[in-house]
Design goal:
Elements lengths: L1 H50 L4 E5 L5 E4 L1 H7 L3 H4 L10 H17 L3 E8 L5 E12 L5 E10 L1 H12 L1 H10 L3 E6 L4 E4 L1 H6 L5 H7 L8 H14 L1 E10 L5 E11 L2 E8 L1 H23 L3 E5 L6 E4 L1 H7 L3 H4 L13 H13 L4 E8 L5 E13 L2 E10 L1 H21 L2
Antiparallel strand pairs: 1-2, 1-5, 3-4, 4-5, 6-7, 6-10, 8-9, 9-10, 11-12, 11-15, 13-14, 14-15
Helix pairs in contact: 1-10, 1-14, 5-6
Length: 422
C-alpha cells in the first residue's frame, strides 16, 4: 500500500505541475493576443494620421506607378483613392510637369537625393494647381530601392502673389497685405524692412514696429540656417522651398517653408507655416516606427501574403526563428510552402477559405522548418489593408509546448485513473 500511495502522490504532483504549465501557456496566449491587438491599433493610428494630414502624400514604385496616397491627395485632385492608386503619377501632372518628372525621377533613384520641387497638378475637372513637393526615395537595409515618397502642398496663392508683383505693384501690395502667407523684406544682415500681417500673426506680433523693437533681425532659431540661406542667395540669386525654424515673440518654434530672392542686397521672400505639417509628419513617422517595432519584435511569427498570388511579401524576426530560415528564403515563396508538402492541398483550400472570410480566423496547423521538423502552430488569419491594398496576415503561435503538456496531462490522468481503480 505504501508503494501505491507514493505512486499516487507522485502522479498528483505531476498533474499539478502540468496544470501549472498549462496556466503559463494560457498566459502566453493572452500576451500573444495583446500583441496582435497592439499591431492592429498601431496600423489604425498610422492610417488615420496619414489620411488626415494637411498635405498631400503619395508613394510610387520604380516605374512611377502610385502604390498609395492619402485622403487629402484624393480630395484635392477630385478623385477617390481607388481611382488614383495603380495609375502613373504623371496622369495627374500637366505636360510640362510630366517632362520634368521624366528627367528628374531617374536621378532621384540613382543618387538617393531628396528633392524640393514645384509641380503643376491637374484635377479631375481639368483645373490645375501648383504644389511644392518634398520628394525622397526609401531603400531597404541592402540598399535596394523600395519606393519614392512625395509630400506636396498647394502653393497657388504664393505664385499668384509673385505674378502680381510682376504685373502691378499696387495689386501686389493689396495681395501681400491680405495674403495668408507671410511676406518680408530684409537686408543681408537680416534687418527687417517690411513684413505683412500674415507674417506678424505667424510670429505672434501685433505691428511691424513691435516686431522691429523686439528684435531688429529675423529671429532664426539656428543662426547657421541664416548663413546657408545667405550663401545660397549670393550664389544663385534665389532659393525655393527652403525649410528653416523661426522663433515667435513667445519663443515658440515655427517650422517655415521659405522662398526668397536677392536683388541689390535686398532679400524679398515669402514664408509658409508648415509647423502642423511637420508635427503630422513626425507623428506619422513615430506611428510607422512603432508599428515596425511591434511587427519586428512580436513574440509570434507574422507573415504577410499577397491575396492574388499567395506569395509571402513580408515576415518578421520571429518567423525566421520559427522556420529556421532567413527572410530571403521565405519572402517570394507561396505560403503553402510553410507547411508539410503532403498537406499542401489542404492548406491551399485553407488559403481560399481565408480569402472568402472577411473576419479573423483561428485554427491549428503544422509548419515545416528548414531542418525538416514539423511543429504545431495556432494560426490567426485576417485580411488587412496596407496602403489601401488588401493583404493576408497570418500570426503563427508555436504551440509545441502546449501540445506536449496536454499529451502528458492526458497520459498522467489515465495512469492515475488506472492506479486508483486497482
Amino acid at each position: 500500500m505504501k508503494d501505491k500511495y507514493k505512486t499516487k502522490k507522485e502522479l498528483i504532483n505531476e498533474l499539478t505541475e502540468l496544470h501549472h504549465q498549462i496556466n503559463k501557456l494560457e498566459k502566453l496566449e493572452s500576451k500573444r493576443k495583446k500583441i496582435e491587438e497592439s499591431l492592429r491599433i498601431s496600423e489604425t493610428k498610422y492610417r488615420n494620421l496619414y489620411d488626415n494630414a494637411p498635405d498631400m502624400y503619395h508613394s510610387i514604385d520604380e516605374k512611377g506607378i502610385i502604390i498609395d496616397c492619402n485622403e487629402t491627395e484624393a480630395r484635392m485632385l477630385g478623385y477617390k483613392k481607388k481611382e488614383i492608386i495603380g495609375r502613373p503619377v504623371t496622369d495627374f501632372f500637366t505636360e510640362e510637369s510630366k517632362r520634368l518628372f521624366e528627367i528628374q525621377f531617374p536621378k532621384l533613384n540613382k543618387e538617393k537625393e531628396q528633392l524640393n520641387l514645384e509641380r503643376e497638378f491637374i484635377r479631375k475637372d481639368g483645373t490645375t494647381f501648383l504644389a511644392s513637393l518634398n520628394v525622397f526615395s526609401e531603400y531597404d537595409d541592402k540598399g535596394r530601392f523600395v519606393r519614392t515618397k512625395t509630400i506636396a502642398r498647394d502653393i497657388t496663392d504664393i505664385k499668384r502673389i509673385e505674378n502680381a508683383l510682376r504685373d502691378s505693384e499696387k495689386d501686389y501690395r493689396y495681395l501681400v497685405d491680405s495674403a495668408l502667407v507671410g511676406v518680408f523684406k530684409t537686408n543681408l544682415r537680416g534687418d527687417i524692412l517690411y513684413v505683412n500681417k500674415a507674417l506678424l500673426n505667424m510670429l505672434e506680433f501685433e505691428t511691424p514696429e513691435e516686431m522691429k523693437a523686439d528684435s531688429a533681425v529675423v529671429r532664426y532659431k539656428n543662426i547657421w540656417d541664416r548663413d546657408v540661406l545667405i550663401e545660397t542667395l549670393m550664389k544663385r540669386g534665389k532659393v525655393e522651398s527652403f525649410e528653416v525654424e523661426l522663433l515667435t515673440k513667445k519663443e515658440k518654434t515655427k517650422n517655415i517653408l521659405m522662398s526668397a530672392t536677392l536683388d541689390k542686397e535686398i532679400i524679398s521672400g515669402m514664408v509658409m507655416d508648415i509647423t502642423e505639417r511637420k508635427l503630422a509628419e513626425e507623428a506619422i513617422r513615430e506611428s510607422e516606427e512603432k508599428f515596425r517595432l511591434a511587427f519586428e519584435n512580436a513574440n509570434d511569427a507574422i507573415f504577410w501574403a499577397d491575396p492574388g498570388t499567395g506569395l509571402i511579401i513580408k515576415c518578421n524576426r520571429a518567423a525566421e526563428t520559427l522556420l529556421g530560415k532567413k527572410k530571403e528564403e521565405i519572402i517570394g515563396h507561396h505560403q503553402t510552402t510553410l507547411h508539410p508538402p503532403q498537406k499542401a492541398e489542404y492548406f491551399a483550400d485553407m488559403f481560399k477559405k481565408h480569402l472568402s472570410h472577411n473576419k479573423v480566423v483561428e485554427e491549428e496547423a503544422e509548419i515545416l522548418t528548414k531542418s525538416g521538423e514539423i511543429k504545431p502552430v495556432l494560426i490567426t488569419t485576417s485580411i488587412t489593408l496596407v496602403g489601401r491594398q488588401p493583404i493576408i496576415q497570418g500570426i503563427f503561435h508555436d504551440i509545441t509546448n502546449r501540445k506536449q503538456a496536454e499529451t502528458a496531462l492526458i497520459e498522467s490522468e489515465e495512469k492515475f485513473r488506472a492506479i486508483s481503480n486497482t
